[in-house]
Amino acid sequence: MALPNALSISAITEPTELLSRVANERKKGLNYCGDIAPEDAYEFLRFNQAVVVDVRTTPEWQFVGVPDLAGTKAKLATVSWKNYPDFSPNTQFAYEMSRISGINKDTPLLFICRSGGRSLDAALAMTQAGYRYCFNIEGGFEGEPDAQGHRGTSQGWKAKKLPWKQG
To answer: How many CA atoms are closer than 13 Å to the CA of 32, on its beta-carbon side?
Structure first.
């Protein structure tokens, strides 16, 4: 789910540069800080403290995998945007986010889901809840299905060959 004004943060190694780009995105009228390409997000995470919030469900984390942030300064938080198995909205999402150690309203939060829809909704909701730096990782963890119906081959974290782990 790429937006036409996706934010590229290539070569950004200082939080002040990211915040400057955020200000420019906000001037464009976005209600959150924008989409970030997976490879740009990973490069930023390597040098800056931030939190990747994986908003998928427990079965997705366990059987599909999660971003591996061992080579970064970031941490991973797993908070479902929708409840499994009925996919009803998680009405406790903002509360669960507020309980995560190390997150405050100025922490850069990079949301990820399967293909970018749930994570976009989460970024919008957390921005509305007063968190200043909420981003959506475009294409999510696996992206949309390719011509053969397979995910993780053309879009998203996995397709860009970024570190991930299963289980």
So the answer is: 25
**Listed residue (14, 82, 16, 19) closest to 48, CA to CA:** 14
Q: What mean pLDDT value characterizes the chain?
A: 88
| Sheet bearing 134-137, strands edge to edge | 35-36, 134-137, 109-112, 51-54, 75-78
In whole angstroms, give the CA distance from residue 152 to residue 140. Answer: 9
Global pTM value: 0.87
What pairs with residue 53 in β-bridges?
77, 111
What is the per-residue pLDDT across 44-95, written as a single tens digit (0 to 9) for each? Answer: 999 899 999 999 999 999 999 999 999 999 999 999 999 999 999 999 999 9
To the nearest 5 percent, what fractions of the chain are helix, strand and coil? Answer: 30, 15, 55
Report the C-alpha gap between 62 and 4 in whole angstroms: 32
Token pair recorded at residue 166: 């299963």
The residue type found at 119 is S
Q: Is the pLDDT of residue 7 over 60?
A: no
At residue 16, the pLDDT reads 62
Specify burial of residue 136 (Cβ count, 10 A radius: 0-12, 13-18, 19+). buried
